[in-house]
Records
---
Amino acid sequence: MFSPQFLTEVRNKDPHLALLLEKIIDNLNNLSQHAGFDPSGKVQPPEPHQALNVAAGTDHVHIAITDNSKVRKNVQYFAEWSANDPAFTNPHVEHLGASRERVLALPAKDGNGVPIQYYFKSYGSYPGSDPQSRHTYFGSKFAPTAVTLTGASQLALLPAVGSGTGRPDGSQSGAGLGIDLERPPLGPKRSPAPSRA
C-alpha cells in the first residue's frame, strides 16, 4: 500500500497539492485492496486450506475445499488432479475462481480400458500474490488418497499444459495464475516473411 508519509512536507508547502495527492493515494489503496494486489509489491497468499474432500461417482467427482481462514473477497481457489501419479508431476489445473467446490466430469478408464486412479490437491491465491505453496491434499502429501470412478467412460487423456504464467508443458505444479508476472514466448521465433518488392 502507498503510505502518506511524505505528505506532511508537501502539505506545509502546498496544501491543495497535498489534498490531491492524498486523494490519489487513498483511491489507489482502495482499488488495490479490492483487486487483490499491492502497488508496491506482492501481497501474501491466503492461508492453506484446512481440508479437501472428494466424492466419486461413475464418471464424475465432486471436490469441496474447506477454508475457514480469513480471506479477502478476491481470493482465487485452485484444484489440481493427477491421473495415476500421486507425485503430481504433470497435473491438470482447475481454476475454481471464488468457488470452493466443483463437479468434474472425468473418464473412469484410459484409452485402453484400464481404470484410472485420480489424485487431488488444492491451494489458493490472490491476483497480486504467488499461489499458496503449501497445498492441501485429499489424503496427505506423502500418501494422497486414490480415487477410482466406477463408470465405463474411456478417454486417452492429453498431457497437461499448465496454467497462468507457469510452464506450458504442465510440469509446474501449483502455479495457479503464475509466479512470474510475465512468461516470455517459447520456442524458436519465425523469421519474417520475405517482402515482395
Note: The chain has a mean pLDDT of 90.
---
Amino acid sequence: MVIIDGENAILGRLASNVAKRLVKNEIIYIVNADKIIITGDPNQIVKKYLERRARGSPQHGPFFPKTVTGIVRRTVRGMLPYKKAKGKKLSNLRIFEGVPKNFENEKMEKMEKDISCDFITLKELAKRIGGK
C-alpha cells in the first residue's frame, strides 16, 4: 500500500508514476488530490477541458469528468492499457480530496517540484468547468 500526497504535484508526472505502479499490481492511495496542479496558462487549460466536455452527445459519450477525483482517475486511465488484462488495475487506485482521518499519521510520498510558471489547481479547474 502506497500513499501519495498530491500537494503541488504536476498531474501528468503523478499520473505516469501511478500508472507504472498500478501495472505492477500495487495498491495506491492519492490524498490532497484537490491540490494537484496543471502547468500552463490557466485560461487555455480551462478552454481545453470545456472543449473535451462538449464533445459527442450526452447519451452516447465520450464522457469526461468534472470532479477532481474524476479528472485524476481519467488521466491515470489514459496512461494504462485499460482494455487489456494487464491494465485492468484501476480498481487498485483510491483518490481523496484532502487527507482522511485514517491516513493522517501514515508516511506519505511527496512528488513536489519547483514551479516557476503559471499553473491551475484541480480544485479551481473543476469549479470553472462546472464541478462542485
Note: Residues 65 and 71 are 6 Å apart (CA to CA).
---
Amino acid sequence: MKHTPFILLIAFAAASVLPLDAQIQFKLDNLASKAKESVDISLPLPMLQLASGFLSKDKSMNPEIQKLVAGLKNITVKKYSFAEEGQYKPEDLQPVRDQLRAAGWGVLLGKHDADGATDIYAKSEGGQITGIAVLKTEPKEVKVVYIEGAIDLAGLANLSGQFGIPTLGLPGQNSDSKKSKGNQ
C-alpha cells in the first residue's frame, strides 16, 4: 500500500508520454540528409477531412476514392531520391521495419530482387485493416507510405497517384497507370 502513490505517479507519467494512437514514427533524417531531393507529405485527420469535403463536391472524382478517404485518419508519404547508387543502406530503414514488426502488424507482400524491394505491411484490429505501410526501395530511391484508418484493401489501389501517394505496383493497379499519373 505504501508504494501505491509511486506506482500511480509512474503510470501517469508513462501515459502522458505515450501517444494515444500507436502511430508509426518516421525518423528518417539520415536519409533526408543524404538525398539530393526529398518529398515529405503529411495529411493528418483535419487535412483529410478538408480534402474529403472537396472530394465530395467534385463530381468527376471516383466515388470509391471519396469513400476510402472518408475512413482515413492519416496519410504520410516520404520519398528520397539519391544522386548515386549506394548513398543509403537498407539498415537506414530498420527503425521503421522494427515498428512494423510490433503486435497487430503483418506482412502482406514482400518482393525483393536486384532492382529493389517492396514490402507492404498491414495492421488489423477486430478483423478490420486499420493501417497500411509500404516501404519501396530502389537503387537510387526510397519511398515510404503510411496510411492509417479504416482501409478497404479492394479500393486501396485507387489511392495510388492521389494525395502524393506514388504508384507502387499494388495488386489491382495496371502498369499503364504509372505513365498516365506521372507519379513514378
Note: The helical segments are 4-17, 29-34, 45-57, 63-70, 94-99, 153-156, 176-181.
---
Amino acid sequence: MKVSKQQAAEHRAAMVDAAARLFRERGFDGVAVAEITRAAGLTHGGFYGHFASKEALAEEACVHSFAEALERMGVAGDLDRYLDTYLSPRHRDARGDGCPMAALAAEIPHREEGLQGKFAAGVAAYVAGLADELRRAGFTAAEARERALLTLAALVGGMALARATAAAAPDLSAEFLATLRRELAREPPETAPRT
C-alpha cells in the first residue's frame, strides 16, 4: 500500500525521534534497526526507503537530539533554571530524554566522520547558546565563551559520572550534582572599569 508524502515524512520523523531516544538510552551499538522501527510504530521493511544505513539515521538522530537539548536551554529562560534542570536527579535517571553529549560523547570517536561532524556541530551550537546566556548574565564576550566551554565540560563530565555512580554509590552521585550546581552558579567576575 502506497503512503502519501505526508505519511512518509511522519514515518521518517518517528524513526528519527525513536532513534534519538534509544541511542541516548543504550548507545549506537546497543540498538538494532528493527527495535527503532518498532519503537516508531513501524515495520522494519520500510527503513531503507528512508535511510541508506543505520549510520545515516544516527546522523539525523544526533541533529534531532541537539535541537531538543538547545530548545530545553531556551525554554529554561535563564542559566540558573537550566542548571537546576540539567543537574537534577530526574535528568540523571532519564537517559533516553537526556543530554546527547553525556550519553554519547565516549562513542563518537569510534563512529564515521559524518556522525562525528554532526556531533561536533551540535557541541559548537551548545557552546554558543551557553555563551549567549552568560553574556546576558554579565560576562564579557571573551569571558562568556571561556566560561561556556568550562561549564559544558563540567556539565557533561559531571552528568556522566553521576550516572555511572548512581546505582553503586548514590551519595557520591548526588554529591557530583550538588557540587557542580553550586560551583557553576558563581557570579561573573568583577571587571575593572573600562577607560
Note: The CA atoms of residues 27 and 104 lie 7 Å apart.
